[in-house]
Design a protein that fits this description.
Strands 5-4-3-6-7 form a five-stranded antiparallel β-sheet. 21% of the residues lie in helices and 27% in strands. A hairpin with a 5-residue loop joins β3 (68-74) and β4 (80-86). The chain has 169 residues and is of the alpha+beta class. The termini are far apart.
């Protein structure tokens, strides 16, 4: 029996959507997913779909999963700059002080997935699948997420905290 050729090429899955009061259930379902999951996306119920960066969503990742894809630039002094892109230009964001284990990744122009740990940027892996680093605006948003340091516990406590109700005058 011949299979439909499109079945092998394209599979479409409908994602489940939950309200914030089902957050505990969401975290339990994440544990059972057949693929890796690094966070939860909160969207407005009535918000339209937006291509590229959607300012009306909140992407939550646990603090240990927040990473940024930088381009490595080694300047004439041998300084290792982590760069983002801003209007097609590369901009220096931070200096990387590489440790011995990171030396195999240190190639000019390499796209590196980095995490901020113990007050330093560390390389998690080289991104051979990406030709460009994150945009500066994305770097700023992820940095805010890193510095906000919102944990799963914080989300669950916020969801269950009593809310003030606006009373009509």
């Amino acid at each position: 029996m011949t299979k439909d050729p499109m079945e092998a090429v394209l599979k479409v899955y409908l994602k489940d959507f939950f309200t914030p009061n089902n957050l505990e259930q969401v975290f339990e379902l994440i544990k059972k997913l057949p693929h890796e999951n690094d966070g939860v996306i909160f969207t407005e119920v009535e918000a339209p779909y937006v291509i590229y960066t959607n300012e009306h969503i909140y992407k939550w990742k646990s603090p240990d999963k927040n990473t940024i894809d930088f381009k490595l630039h080694i300047d004439s002094d041998g300084k290792h700059w982590l760069q983002a892109v801003d209007n097609k230009d590369s901009v220096n964001i931070a200096v990387l002080e590489p440790i011995e284990a990171e030396k195999p990744f240190l190639e000019e122009g390499a796209i590196l997935e980095c995490a901020y740990r113990n007050s330093d940027w560390r390389i998690d892996r080289r991104r051979g699948d990406k030709p460009h680093p994150n945009a500066k605006r994305v770097v700023e948003l992820v940095w805010k997420s890193i510095t906000d340091n919102v944990t799963k516990h914080d989300l669950l406590n916020y969801r269950s905290a009593p809310r003030k109700q606006n009373k009509p005058s």
